[in-house]
Structure formats: structure tokens, C-alpha cells
Amino acid sequence: MDTIIQNLKHVQQRIDEACKAAGRDPKEVKLLLATKTVSPERIQQALAAGYTLIAENKVQELKEKYEALKTTPHTNHFIGHLQTNKIKEILRYEVSCVESLDRYDLAEKLHQKLSQAGREMDVFIQVNTSGEESKFGVAPEAALELTRQVAQLPTLHIRGLMTIGLFSAEEDKVRKCFQLLKRIQQEIIALNLPDVQPQELSMGMSGDLEIAIAEGATIVRVGTAIFGQRIYPDSYYWNEQKA
Ligand SMILES: *Cc1c(COP(=O)(O)O)cnc(C)c1O
């Protein structure tokens, strides 16, 4: 029961120390709880500790936990591969930001549904900075073009970029992924597109959040270091058929 609270304290300490080392204010870095496979009861413990930004990878899990979490104030982001036939549910279950927008056909369909509902949504562009086949995300060289296209859709507001760093013990290689995302952010800002303010950099997880913070992360997405090991390997979430 208390482990989650202790883990949260420990992760917050890691964030604070990384910020200090980078000369940054810890208030600039939000801790997002990556809650895949975690039960609503355990998510509630983290919410009660004041961490209210949570994210699922699968619409099915979002749906299953919705009732149980509905009355506890929190913000839902979505960080998984989103199939276009699941967009309705993303709206129904009150996701406020899709961080994993990685292709135009998804943006277009999201825009259609939002228009019909008279709603708008924040989105992040997910970039595949590691170049690994197995990971979703737009290729770095196509990120600016996708951003230009999405910027034309009035219901979608680009507020940031998201990436999953390379899984590697070689810090330099991991760091390069985060530096690349930062560089793309700067390039997008320089385009000066209307209503495109990608100030959020969602990067860094349990194993590499210090590196991400050093490179400018404003959101770190942490699962394992808070909730413990998952029974499913991440390949279950990341290597599924590309739709
Ligand atoms: C699972 C997941 C995380 C958190 O990973 P941990 O290593 O458990 O901290 C972050 N981002 C995405 C997209 C994830 O799927």
C-alpha cells in the first residue's frame, strides 16, 4: 500500500535532482503516471498523493478504468498507438490530449469527430527519434510536414512533442534521441505557424528521465518506477500490427 507513495517520493527526488543538475526549476517538469496494466485502486493511491496527470496506452484499459476513476479529479492523456476506429472512445472517456499523434489520417479523422461534437483537443506529435522499426511515431524528417498539415485542422492544437528514447545502456545514444526531439521543437517554433505552440516535450521514462530532463523534458512519463514491474512486456504495447 505504501510502496506507491514511497516510489512517488523517490521519483520526485530523482526529478528534483535532475532539475538541479540542469539548472532548471522542478516546477517546469510534470510527472505523468503511465498506468498501463495498473488497477484503478493503485492509480487512486497516486492520485491521492497529488499526481493527477495519467495516461493509458490502450483504449480498452481507458474504458475499463473509466468508471472507477471518474469521480477523482485527474487529467487523461493518451500515449499509445491510436487506431482510427477508437477515436470515438477517446472522446467519450475524456482524454484531454493525445500525445501519440503520428500520422495525418489519424489527425484528419480526429478532427472530423471533434468537429461533429463541437469540441477541440490538444495534441502532441509523436516522433520516432530512435529510428527503431518497432516503435510508432513519425520519422524525424517528416515531423515538420506533419506539423504543417495538422496545423490546418482547427480543432487540433499542437502543444508539444513526444518520443520514446532508445532502450540502451549507452547514454549518448539515448541522449541523442532527446536532443533530436528538442531540435525538432526549435524548428517547429521557427516555422511560426498559427496556433502551434509545441512548448511541451514529453520524454523520459523510468530508466532515462534524468537524461531527458537534462535535455529539456517538461513531462516525464513514469510507470515501472512507481507501480513496479508489469506482467506484459512493452512489446505488447509497442510492437502490435501497425494499423
Ligand atoms: C509504458 C510507457 C511509459 C513508462 O515506461 P516505464 O519504463 O514503465 O516508466 C512511458 N511512455 C510510454 C509511451 C509507455 O508506453
UniProtKB/TrEMBL annotation:
Cofactor(s) annotated in UniProt: pyridoxal 5'-phosphate
Keyword match rRNA processing: no
Pfam entry (one): Ala_racemase_N
Domain (Alanine racemase N-terminal) ranges: 8-229
Modified residues (N6-(pyridoxal phosphate)lysine): K36
Keywords: Pyridoxal phosphate
InterPro entries: Ala_racemase_N, PLP-binding_barrel, PyrdxlP_homeostasis
Chain coiled-coil ranges: none
CDD domains: PLPDE_III_YBL036c_like
Gene Ontology MF term list: pyridoxal phosphate binding
Family: Belongs to the pyridoxal phosphate-binding protein YggS/PROSC family.
Function according to Swiss-Prot or TrEMBL: Pyridoxal 5'-phosphate (PLP)-binding protein, which is involved in PLP homeostasis.
Annotated protein name in UniProt: Pyridoxal phosphate homeostasis protein
Organism placement in taxonomy: Bacteria, Pseudomonadati, Bacteroidota, Flavobacteriia, Flavobacteriales
